[in-house]
Fold this sequence. Notes:
single chain, mainly alpha, 77% helix
Amino acid sequence: MIIFEQMRALYIVIILAFCFSGRLLAQDNELLLARQYNANGEPQKALEIYQKLYKQNNENYYSVYINTLLNLKKFDEAESITKKLIRRHPDDHQYAIMLGNIYTQGGNMAKADAIYDDLIKSLPADQGEIAALASQFYQSANIDYAIKIFQQGRKLLKNDNMFTYELINLYRFKRDKISLTDEYLNFLPQNPNFINQAENAFSNVYEGSADYDMLKTALLRRIQKDPQQTIYADLLTWQYLQQKEFDLALNQALALSRRQNDDGNSIYDLCRTFIANEAYDEAIRGYEYIISKGKTSSLYIPSKIELINTKNLKVTSGKYLPEDLLGLEKDYNDLLTEFGRNSSTAFAMQKLANLQAFKLHKLKDAQKLLEETTRLNDIRPNLLADCKLDLGDIYLLNNQPWEATLLYSQVEKDFPATAVGQDALFRNAKMAYYTGDFTWAKGQLDVLKVATSQLIANDALNLLLLIQDNLAADSSGAALKVYARADLQIFAQNPEKAVMILDSIGKKFPNNALDDDIMMSKSRILIQQKDYAGAVPLLKKIVEEHPADLWADDAVFMLGDIYENRLNDKTTARNYYQKIITDYPGSLWINEARKRFRVLRGDKPDAS
């Protein structure tokens, strides 16, 4: 009898389980059907299912039911249901927040605000409950009241430093620049390690000079109130950098460094930023400040070297006055006098020789100095190779081609199948081209057009095509030899001589095939002289008159680069990059043009 009763009970449990699971399965099917109705634009049919499910299982289907009512603008029904749940669960604030949302969507903002304000007034002085309520407002997309909850929480807990991370994230999400700025400026003095995070946040939300001026005003006010707080001074320096007010950035950093009497590390790092932005004068002033601290400073020698390197960058970038050249030459000589001429200063000897050869045109002095450099003991192999290649160039400019080719060949032999060796081979080929030995040059260039160094391969291919195209038009190569002499003057940085030779070609050889080549050479001279506006018409003329010739795609890409980086016309730049993609799909510039086009179009970095 007992066994029978047990079996009967087990049977009932199994029957109930099957019924319950069957009921769940039916509810799941109905839920899928309701979703399908919504997807098909039939919300009324979906509502009927949600209403049925809500009555069967009450609160589990509240969210989908209430949202469907709101979509159908049945605000009274939604209000009635929600008020019942508020009475049933007075401590569960999600229903009060939803009731406020119902009033908001129904256009009754006053009622919604009254509900939200009551929640704030009844807020307990409990950190967990404050955070939970703010989170519920955030999840219902009510950012403003989430912020008010945290602000009220600070008052209740009597702690203005509470909920800083949460408020920063909310202000950033809302793009509330003023509040975000104030929050970070209150937070940073006790948490200076977060300065980079603050700078990134400002960069993401600030939209122009007005926003940075707002930051500057706030910082200056705080610095005046608390001059000993260095984090504000650091942030002010960053603000000046964003505005590209490099002189003011340096002045601010120097003032802070002097006040702290530090070793100048922050100035040394700042100088790198100046150099990256081509603010060479500010970098020079920064390095000079560090050097003025004396030889006992750990940064004395590095700053001395970087000072000269920066002056060299200023000269090679074209942003210099004639007297800067002589000043830089003196700096190199002073460095060599102070530290001697040895393997440790060989880099300075090399740079001084290049300055003398290509800027001061003191070819004999440059040759003598590099010959001395290549005889030094213990010089690094790669640096020795670079010095030999540069010395070969100077031999070429000094009309000593035989000595030049010996050095090029020596480096090629010492560094087989490397970028250095290929560079040596290319210089040998160019020397043959400059001196009119086009047959030998073609042989070398034919090998180099598949070089592992893409830059050398591209340059070799262009020079090979230049020679082939013009010899096909004139087998004697008479006009090409004159053009090669002009090219040599461009290499020697004698632009006036180069232009005179280029202008003579049309007069001596009226039917030459070098028209686009001459325009490209003149364009490059103008670009070398920073006359970008002057280069544009020549490059456009190449594109218009020689769209299928050697330099057409180069001219298109160069126009894009000039408009993007020099003339600040992003729209025109994008059009030229697009022209490479559509008109010159086989161009060597295709990948770079496609990448730049996408950036200017506003694509994300991972866009395909």
